[in-house]
# Entry
Amino acid sequence: MPTTFDDVCAAAVRLRDRVHHTPVLTSPLLDEWLGFHAFLKAEHLQRSGSFKLRGATNAVMTIGDDLATRGVAAHSSGNHAAALALAARDRGIVAHVVMPADAPAAKRAAVDGYGARVVECEPTIAARENALRRVLEETGAVEVHPYDDDRVIAGAGTAALELLEAVPGLDVVIVPVGGGGLLAGTSIAAHGFDPAVRVIAGEPAGADDAARLLAVGRLIPSTAPDTIADGLLTSLSPRTFDVIRKHVERIVPVGDAETISAMRVLWERMKQVIEPSSAVAVAGARLAGLDGLRVGIVLSGGNCDPRQVPWALDHPRRAAPDLS
# Structure
């Protein structure tokens, strides 16, 4: 059965004492820069540093005791890896996490710190999938996919549900999109809560499979993604595509320079350490023509290595910030 609004509500109850009820942040200075009233759901302040803990915990807590003793497993470049490791630790079971060799050092350190078994592989989707397949065969662990899982989608949707409950009268909710778990969960939560709420996503222009699929009505995997937003490199699955095509109004493409500008504004003007994937949603909202509206933005994560900020003089993707 596809994920429903009731599933999101059930996940919210299940997660009540297991994840942070993150704050909603506002800033007149940010409103001026964006051109609308922004309400930021601060999932970068979530345990493990991202919204991913919601989906991972919902999945882990719904696995039967007999299967849970075998542990859980997934492949992930970072945020889902850390979230699954923490969710497994909270339940007292083992997590096996396949990570590419080029995963950000800060994210790898977090996964290690939560006690997961890390299996390193080459930085390709095929290598990740093959390594995970071997782990599953060797351990009998239960796979918890980063986004192609109804339990994960329902858990992700609880962030938007909290936002909508905290801020009455939102016109739009916008999130970043990679594999589509957060966007699918958000759209189900938003339209279950209030069908009039518009749902939009920001997507890296260099990894724009979601925008292209909405245009042509079929899946078009991203084969060579090129974006500073390392958390948004994955393509939609049939499961997330099916939800998104029904509920999402549009996808806004965002270039790296625009992402960096938005990230820098949040760091410098609001003192909020967000990662590039979060900034994609902020930049997408600024580009979407939402002047004067009440807009909720989910800041998806804050797992960024401060030594690698993209406005550093020697960063390969450095761009002049647009702080006007």
Summary: The two ends are 47 Å apart (CA to CA).
